[in-house]
């Protein structure tokens, strides 16, 4: 089964359960790391923070449903966790939700000698990501950005 299809199936399996339990699905990915495959499921809590008990509850439920439906033919490790405070922004919904937030961008190639840029997210489209850095607007081709995470300041 294709990665996108697995993520979509996991979302369908979890939809009703997560809503009933007060969680939401942040992101799902099926990856290969070395010889191993991982189904990574990131959950958010509608109120408060996600703890290990929350991850365990969702993991047990999902593991049972995946065993029943047998949608993944390869061996894999199931990982359920919080996306964390420094969560990666992946979908357009994430970018819309965190517009105005401070972000850290990792670039494929340097801009002004930097491959890491911090600023405030203004907007994101398929073609262009706009941030402000020290009050100056910076427009970057979205294809040149490898990763965007929320910045964490303590």
Keyphrases for this structure?
alpha+beta; 154 residues; GMP Synthetase, Chain A, domain 3; three-stranded mixed sheet; five-stranded antiparallel sheet; 3 helices; SH3 type barrels; globular; single chain
Overview of this structure, please?
With 154 residues, this protein is α+β, with helices and mostly antiparallel strands. The chain folds into 2 domains: 79 residues, RimP-like superfamily, N-terminal (GMP Synthetase, Chain A, domain 3), CATH 3.30.300.70; 59 residues, Ribosome maturation factor RimP, C-terminal domain (SH3 type barrels, Roll), CATH 2.30.30. The chain has 3 helices and 8 strands; from the N terminus they run αββαβαβββββ. A 5-stranded antiparallel beta sheet has the order 7-6-5-4-8. Strands 1-2-3 form a 3-stranded mixed beta sheet. Helix 1 packs across helix 2. The radius of gyration is 17 Å and the shape is globular. The model has no long low-confidence stretch (mean pLDDT 93).
Arithmetic mean of pLDDT:
93
SS-based class: alpha+beta
Largest sheet, if any? 5 strands, antiparallel
Content of β-strand: 35-45%
Q: Count the E strands.
A: 8
Through-space gap between termini: 42 Å
Q: In CATH terms, what is the architecture of the largest domain?
A: 2-Layer Sandwich
What is the number of domains?
2
What is the approximate shape? globular
CATH topology of the largest domain: GMP Synthetase, Chain A, domain 3
Q: Walk across the major sheet and give the strand order.
A: 7-6-5-4-8
Query: Could you give the order of the helices and strands?
Result: HEEHEHEEEEE
**What count of helical segments does DSSP give?**
3
CATH class of the largest domain: Alpha Beta
Name the CATH superfamily assignment of the largest domain. Answer: RimP-like superfamily, N-terminal
């Amino acid at each position: 089964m294709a990665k996108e299809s697995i993520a979509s199936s996991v979302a369908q399996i979890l939809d009703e359960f997560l809503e009933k339990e007060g969680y939401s699905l942040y992101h799902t990915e099926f990856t290969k790391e070395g010889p191993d495959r991982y189904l990574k499921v990131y959950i958010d809590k509608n109120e408060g923070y996600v703890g290990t008990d929350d991850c365990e509850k969702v993991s047990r439920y999902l593991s049972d449903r995946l065993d029943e439906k047998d949608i993944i033919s390869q061996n894999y490790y199931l990982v359920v966790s919080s996306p964390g405070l420094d969560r990666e922004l992946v979908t357009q919904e994430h970018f819309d939700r965190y517009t105005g937030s401070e972000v850290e961008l990792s670039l494929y190639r340097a801009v002004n000698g930097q491959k890491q840029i911090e600023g405030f997210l203004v907007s994101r489209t398929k073609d262009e990501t706009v941030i402000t850095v020290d009050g100056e607007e910076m427009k970057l081709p979205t294809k040149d950005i490898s990763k965007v995470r929320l910045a964490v300041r303590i």
